Amino acid sequence: MRKAKSDAASTASQAVVELTDVKKIYSMGDAEVQALRGVSFKVEQGEFISIMGPSGSGKSTCMNMIGCLDRPTSGVVKIDGRETHLMNETELAVLRNKTIGFVFQQYHLIPSMTVIENVMLPLKYKRFPREDRYELARAALKKVGLENRENHRPNELSGGQKQRVAIARAIIAEPKIILADEPTGALDTKTGIQVMDLFREINKTGTTIIIVTHDPGIGKSTERCIKILDGLLC
Ligand SMILES: Nc1ncnc2c1ncn2[C@@H]1O[C@H](COP(=O)(O)OP(=O)(O)O)[C@@H](O)[C@H]1O
Ligand SMILES: [Mg+2]
Questions:
Q1: Which structural domains are found in the chain, ordered by start?
Q2: What ligand is nearest to the CA atom of residue 54?
């Protein structure tokens, strides 16, 4: 059972994410892009934060570092107390599956699968028995208010509903951290607010939430906002 936020806070002071002087240079032929130019910050267990900056400022690159989807050119990325540069690809994949749930702007649902099959997918990779997967997926869909849509396909849902399915898929394995890259970017303002309210609810159960956004309104709605510009925090 997950701890309530107040309990989680009392055992806190443990950073679940810690970046120290992280640099990322993309090389494209002769040209180099310095996407991150020395970024350092910590996120404590149970925080609800945003990383905000304009297009091209390095937000997605930063998210890829935290999500262990890519490695920095230099600097240290610690996730859940582990220094990721000391880990091989298999170890990183295990850490990622165990610790992080991802949410993307374009939902990344599998169109040929039903809603409940999409939500169950992370547990399939973890080799949970099918019956358990089904029950847990139903519970996750209930948490996002979509229990009556389990046999629909993604293209039968609105944008907001698709994002709720993606959030159910992100929380099903009870990750410590949810990383969301522009999760409201494809939604109208009202639906975006509802999705942010849902993240807030999930955060209350102790899950650390990191939202990447270009939208100052979203930035303001989180407990702490880290601002990034041209690959540097500001
Ligand atoms: N795979 C890549 N190859 C080369 N350049 C990239 C790559 N990904 C991002 N960039 C560049 O790095 C900078 C930061 O990009 P990104 O992290 O995607 O910013 P944001 O998410 O804030 O829009 C931009 O100049 C972008 O063009
Ligand atoms: Mg981006």
A1: 5-233 (3.40.50.300)
A2: 1
> DSSP per residue over the chain, as a string?
-PPPHHHHHHT---EEEEEEEEEEEEEETTEEEEEEEEEEEEEETT-EEEEE--TTSSHHHHHHHHTTSS--SEEEEEETTEEGGGS-HHHHHHHHHHHEEEEETT----TTS-HHHHHHHHHHHTT--HHHHHHHHHHHHHHTT-GGGTTS-GGGS-HHHHHHHHHHHHHTT--SEEEEESTTTTS-HHHHHHHHHHHHHHHHTT-EEEEEES-HHHHHTSSEEEEEETTEE-
Atom 17 (ligand 1) nearest CA: 58
Q: Does the CB atom of residue 58 touch ligand 1 within 6 A?
A: yes
List, for residues 106-157, the tens digit of each pLDDT value. Answer: 999 999 999 999 999 999 878 888 889 999 999 999 999 999 999 999 999 9
Cβ of residue 154 lying under 6 Å from some atom of ligand 1: no
pLDDT in tens, 83-111: 999 999 999 999 999 999 999 999 999 99
